[in-house]
Amino acid sequence: MVYRNANDGNMVIRRCCTSGCGEDGKTSEFEGREAYFCTSNLCNATQSTSTSTITTATTTVQTSLACYDCSGFNEQCGTESTLISNCRSCMVYRNPVDQTKIERHCCYWNCGSSGTITEYDGRPTYFCSNDRCNGIGVESLLEPTGFSEQCGTESTLISNCRSCMVYRNPVDQTKIERHCCYWNCGTPGSVSEYDGRPTYFCTNDKCNGIGAEYNLGSPATTSTTTTASLIGPCILNCKNGGTLETVDGCYCYCVENTSGKECETIDCSKQDENDEACNVGNKPLCYESEIFVHECRHLCELC
To answer: What angle do CA 81, 84, 90 make, to 5 degrees?
Structure first.
């Protein structure tokens, strides 16, 4: 896709479109702007796409508001390296696929009132209008992970999964997490240990919807409130998708290809194992699934 950014002197933007795309070879509205779409390799390049097909906006928004613009899968998200300018508003929301990840972005259109949580593209989003106001910490204004009222509805569906899975949120076990499994999935129709938690797996479309959680055991009585542990003699901050062992708080469950006391080490010596999944066409999944990020660590630029 190609469009003009009315907030930056009508600069031409060339992007990959993954959803809500217009018809091939035609111009249509996308996120409040006119965009041109095409479906052949590299068709939005300078040489092959005429930006004259895109109408120049007649009005522009002149603002110098600086916001963090990044995904929570980026460890630098919320630091100076992820700042951009010329925003109308800053916004923060939880990644709809992995709600433990925080998305910080620049809003150009249809922004909510500053200082409020407003529905934006189907998800609760906090808006603010001061420089860098969507930095680290402001996500505390959002509902805790696992509390999405939309979880289990059509708006939270994704495709290209090997298996569906359901487990209890490790922080609040009364909340249910429904996710797509790409690797190391358990036997369909059974409850298996997955990243240190009992998880139910199934292989029919939408099989991890509302009601599937009844295959799990009762909620545990012990829980933690953050990934950082203050239990016993240990203070741990499990990194790279690691999850805290909740009994004594002195152990992190590490995902495959990570190691160390806090899962801080990523094994970059081997190439991504699954060539079929870890291809450039699936790169958008790097921003949707923490599991995919660590299995496709080279594709997703962890290595």
So the answer is: 115
